[in-house]
Amino acid sequence: MVPFAGYSMPVQYPAGLMAEHKHTRDAAGLFDISHMGQLRLVGPDAAAAFETLMPVDVIDLAPGKQRYGLLLNDDGGILDDLMFFNEGHGSIFVIVNGACKVADLAHIQQKIGERCDVQPMPDHALLALQGPQAAAALARLSPGIERFVFMTGGTVQIGGIPAFATRSGYTGEDGFEISVAGQDADALARLLLAQPEVKPIGLGARNSLRLEAGLCLYGNDIDTTTTPVEASLNWAIQKVRRAGGAREGGFPGTAKVLAQLAAATAGAAGRTDHDTLKRKRVGLVALERIPVRDGTLLQSFEGQDIGIVTSGLLGPTADRPVAMGYVATAFSEPGTRVQAIVRGKPVPMEVSTLPFVPARYYRG
Amino acid sequence: MSIKYTKDHEWVSAEGGAATVGITVHAQDALGDVVFVDLPEVGKTFAQGEVAGVVESVKAAADVFMPVSGEITEVNEALRADPSLANTDPLAAGWFFKVKLSDPAQLDALLDAATYDKFAAES
């Protein structure tokens, strides 16, 4: 157990991180992620109000659907990344990072508290059931739940326990996140763990799974000093919010983020503006079997400092050292060779596309 | 042959002027699945307490300290090829390196098994 975001959290269970990681990829793993923040934004103006905080299409998200979002500060820096779900009837359900939840609530309340009702849900727990056998295990307790596709969800009964489930997660696998009243969490967890496919999985394996899936960890790979474009999260900025879109801009840091987006788009045609977009998050694979960890300096082969690793380890499924980090834009193309300085020794690495392990989301 | 232990969780099996070094059962248990070992160069000399190698698990990297002063005479290439030997057989097939001792008297100050076990249980 380790202290994390004010909670005591299991890093690993007796099986160990490697076995837990592999079990999640092969069968189904249960994660207790109750430290994460849950809240509702309620009112007829909630979606339009929430959209003013993020470079994301909130207004057009259909009821019953979920989307990834980014709270930005006025410099375009990322205050937090989150998931939001349109419950219909002017209600948006939001899940934010545990370490950020107090600040997020204050930020949201201050910015849009007059336009909608901001309702924290501290009495709710959150469980994630992830892996190729998650749907089969959960459907046994909640027939019909297998009909949800990736990034959809709704109110369900699981073994008679009322809950709210979405088909999503943060491992790259098919799976579900389940919000449940705190008083029912223990019973729900025991029900899920009683299924033959399911084992408990700790935070350590959650980290290695999400890294192989190419997903950012807030505080490591993204923070207030990184923008969505630098973080290669352009996919999270829908067309409607981009230059020329029907609801262009209007989010904190608009000028900077849209300028960087234009530079990144020009880069696809080989004309990257390196002053506007100085660095990008990339995937990296070490060409020797040496783990390259968070904080490792990246250099060109000429010895020039070009970036830093923000997450890295030996991927249990990828079976090779994988990492993510920021590099100067000129070094961001897949296939580019760089070197990581590990304990004073250079380790060659190659910029790689993400994810390192193919995602297996269920899209129907 | 005597086996001694350090508070940095290495074991030393010494005979004559030579010793074999590895990490303890407690150390590999705390580290979890070992995925990489960085072994010292043969012929290199280290003082007691210097960092002679690194062992990395999925979750962390840890230094391997030289339990006694001396020259590296051999490293375990099998461990380099299969780092999980440090988990499955830490006291035998998972040895790290062999040392020619420059000051065998240093062994006397290391911990015996009972003292180490008590130390590890409390740490």
Automatic annotation (TrEMBL), chain B:
The gene is gcvH. Keywords: Lipoyl. Pfam families: GCV_H. PANTHER family: GLYCINE CLEAVAGE SYSTEM H PROTEIN (PTHR11715), GLYCINE CLEAVAGE SYSTEM H PROTEIN-RELATED (PTHR11715:SF3). The glycine cleavage system catalyzes the degradation of glycine. The H protein shuttles the methylamine group of glycine from the P protein to the T protein. The glycine cleavage system is composed of four proteins: P, T, L and H. GO terms for biological process: glycine decarboxylation via glycine cleavage system; protein lipoylation. The lineage of its organism: Bacteria, Pseudomonadati, Pseudomonadota, Betaproteobacteria, Burkholderiales. Its cofactor is (R)-lipoate. Belongs to the GcvH family. GO terms for cellular component: cytosol; glycine cleavage complex. This is Glycine cleavage system H protein. It comes from the Bacteria. The modification N6-lipoyllysine is found at residue 59. Residues 18-100 form the Lipoyl-binding domain. The keyword Glycoprotein does not apply.
